[in-house]
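To make this tangible, this section ends with a sequence with its structure tokens:
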Amino acid sequence: MTEFQSAVFRWYRRSGRKLPWRGERDPYRILVSEVMLQQTQVSRVLEKYSAFLAQFPTVHSLARARRSHVIRMWRGMGYNNRAVRLHRLAHSVAHTSGGILPQTEKELMDLPGIGRYTARAIMSSAFALPVPVVDVNIQRFFSRVFWSMSTLTDMRPLRDVEAHALKQFPPRNGYEWNQALMDLGATVCTARTPQCDACPVASHCRSRTGMKRVAAIRKKSEPSFYGVPERIHRGHIIEHLRGLRNGHSLPLAQLGKAVLPHFSDRNMKWLRRILGQLERDGLVRVQDDGTTPRVRLA
């Protein structure tokens, strides 16, 4: 074991985060945690993880559930499409492999909502397979340590970091190694305020004294309506429909008034377009019998 690896392991055993999915070996529970953690802070996942598993303790229970119930249980997590994809994944696994998750990267990536990182995280955490994983935290950490980054926002291309991660991967304790690197990137080598004095491998870091802060990058413009991003309107629509009793629906005009101030008939075309997107994503269902169109969770 190298000095670098030893320092990382020592730090993790002393300072690693205590998370409910750490040490878990049930592939389904690992799957739920990894999908929840996609683009979502750990603190928010901690609030929802146990409650979600209490409602859907197995792949089969999730597959049997109504999609609207799954979407309701996803409240507070954001990125609601993940709930739909997770539900579809459960259906696929329950009906094609008896509820057993595959163990290969290719088979996992064939499932809805599973990308390269999530597949490898499941392989490492659920099946103890010796594969390095690289999330954005690890990509940033390795970029700074092994290359000279001139600013806090710089990172090496993912392919370069993955190749180096493979070289650094220890012959034993691969799961613990992956978790340690994630924690270092998430809590010490952070994006905006790296705590170099607390880093166990600061002496190895090529970027420690050379990184400069840069002006905040202006976010790309996104579609908006009345000055509010449409993704926010989408979220408000889902949140309002979550408040309905199971199976209940709302007239489109009533929903429009609930989510958009001063809603009027001239906004109906916009509302139908947004609902069309949500319907294609599997989140809502519009019922139009030619009289009073209504909408509910899918």
